[in-house]
Amino acid sequence: MSHKIITSQTLYQKLVASHTVRRLDEDNVLLFCDLHLMNEYTSPQAFAGLHDENRKVAVPGQNVSVVSHIIPTDPSSIRIIHDAASALQATNLARNCAFHGIPLFDTNDAMQGIEHVVAPEHGMIRPGMVVICGDSHTTTYGALGALGFGIGTSEVEHVLATQTLVYRTAKDMRIRVNGTLPVGTTSKDLILMIIGQIGAQGARGYVVEFCGTAIEQLSVEARFTLCNMAVEAGARGALIAPDETSIRYVLEKCPDIVGDTRDAALAAWKHLYSDDNARFDKEHTFDATDIEPHVTWGTSPDQVLPISGKIPSPDSVAADVRRSAEQALRYTALQPGATLAGTPIEHVFIGSCTNARIEDLRSAAQVVAGRQVAKNVRAMVVPGSGAVKIQAEAEGLDQVFLNAGFEWRKPGCSMCLAMNDDVLMDGIRCASTTNRNFEGRQGRGAITHLMSPAMAAAAAVTGMITDVRKLEPAHV
Ligand SMILES: CC(C)[C@H](C(=O)O)[C@@H](O)C(=O)O
Ligand code: SF4
């Protein structure tokens, strides 16, 4: 007689178990995917592979495509992609989606934007789902208690053909953040601090569950920022157990969840938490109480400092990271021992799937209101999606930015990775709300400093990296 042993499970284990079609071996399962998101960049070869084998898309309705990376953001009314290769990617995506009956947010759709901003605002992401995409920042959806992660192009083809994925299970990490984030700081500062502490590989091989009072107090949009950037610590996924805050958000975005469906959904979501005795392979605890605004000084997101900190000397860092620190400082042209505050910048970019949602724009606008972009600084806001842009315009935020001398652009990935026309020149130093400060990320030779939207706004109006908490009150 066999006895079923009921053990405590982590939230991550519950999500994997509920989507496992078949266990393949010790490490791998065949995982069912509730939603597969696609973009123009990582899907063409997958469709080509599918067509070569004469296969159909298994469940077209559980796939959605968004043109994100290569779309132009200039304010002209019709968007025309001038680069031939990029235009071809967009046309291919449109053709493939039409052929297979896959919904598409196309280049000139009013709701167009960055895939990770578009999907949740249209109610596509719900607690308990598995969401995958050929894009690393799919971890964003953990904010709603959905397991999201990026996949490679060959996997995209497999998912299209079967709506399943051969999935190597990850280890479990818990990051608890006690306390409350102080005024003037955001979840961007929190995640930059965490990445600085555990390193760019610190969560490699793990799915991270965030918990603790500081996390509970975060809005859903702030949680998106946190989970989005967990991948910059190497995480294979990020999760926050659904609570009242996230459930309210989802119900607002999902008009179809009513009546019995709503009761059933609420009942199912109640189980989405890590059991008391669940075992995590690794745990970290932080306190949010004394967190300062954080800004990167190097070419990896873990090369980061609190704004009052001093740029490290390569001699003072551990031997294994010394060379990369030296290289980074050579690239960013900064002096060890100096503070980041006061470093002149030439460009400000407020955008990306990390920080281009409405709350991000509100927080930047609050700093900008009544001030002017500093002389010699070019500053732009690229909203995360058409919906964010429309909302911001309804609130008059576009006018706040335009009056101050910012450019107000159309949505897209834009200068987050410079795959469209928004590219920085060699040597230009940019205060950026994005997630990656790699060499050349925003243009060859361009230097990126990652920070929160409020800090980027402070940089725009002062012309230098500035502690937003120390700005004199503006005369609005
Ligand atoms: C283009 C895409 C594959 C890439 C990713 O996977 O993250 C991009 O979105 C990025 O942010 O670097
Ligand atoms: S905004 Fe940046 S990080 Fe996000 S999907 Fe686009 S390129 Fe990647």
Automatic annotation (TrEMBL):
Cofactor dependence is on: [4Fe-4S] cluster
Superkingdom of source: Bacteria
Q: Please list the coiled coil stretches.
A: none
Molecular-function annotations in GO: 3-isopropylmalate dehydratase activity; 4 iron, 4 sulfur cluster binding; metal ion binding
Biological pathway: Amino-acid biosynthesis; L-leucine biosynthesis; L-leucine from 3-methyl-2-oxobutanoate: step 2/4
User: Some GO term, biological process aspect, for this entry: which one?
Assistant: L-leucine biosynthetic process
Catalysed reactions, as listed in the record: (2R,3S)-3-isopropylmalate = (2S)-2-isopropylmalate
> Which residues does the UniProt record annotate as the domain Aconitase/3-isopropylmalate dehydratase large subunit alpha/beta/alpha?
14-463
> Per the UniProt record, which EC number(s) apply here?
4.2.1.33
Q: What PROSITE patterns would the database entry show?
A: ACONITASE_1, ACONITASE_2
This protein's UniProt keywords: 4Fe-4S, Amino-acid biosynthesis, Branched-chain amino acid biosynthesis, Iron, Iron-sulfur, Leucine biosynthesis, Lyase, Metal-binding
Family per record: Belongs to the aconitase/IPM isomerase family.
Q: How does it assemble?
A: Heterodimer of LeuC and LeuD.
| PANTHER family for the chain | 3-ISOPROPYLMALATE DEHYDRATASE, HOMOACONITASE, MITOCHONDRIAL-RELATED
Physiological role = Catalyzes the isomerization between 2-isopropylmalate and 3-isopropylmalate, via the formation of 2-isopropylmaleate.
Q: What is this protein called?
A: 3-isopropylmalate dehydratase
| Gene label | leuC
